[in-house]
Amino acid sequence: MQSEISLGVAIDLEIEGVWKWSADNRISFHPIEQWTPGTEYKINMDPE
To answer: Could you tell me if residue 42 is inside a domain?
Structure first.
């Protein structure tokens, strides 16, 4: 599947990367740089 998602989902403590569909009901985030250890991130999704 792996189609890129451009709207409707965001991550706070902004980090560059790409959201992709990994299954019909699952998305995944692929950061360009490594995650910072010990940092909390918040995922925001539009209801539709």
So the answer is: no
Q: How far apart are CA 46 and CA 17, in angstroms?
A: 18
Range of the domain at 25: 1-33
Q: At CA 28, angle to CA 19 and CA 8, rounded to 5?
A: 45
Cα-based distances in Å from 17 to 10, 20, 38, 43: 10, 10, 19, 13
pLDDT of 1 reads 63
pLDDT in tens, 1-48: 678 888 899 888 888 999 999 998 899 999 999 988 999 999 999 987
21 inside domain: yes
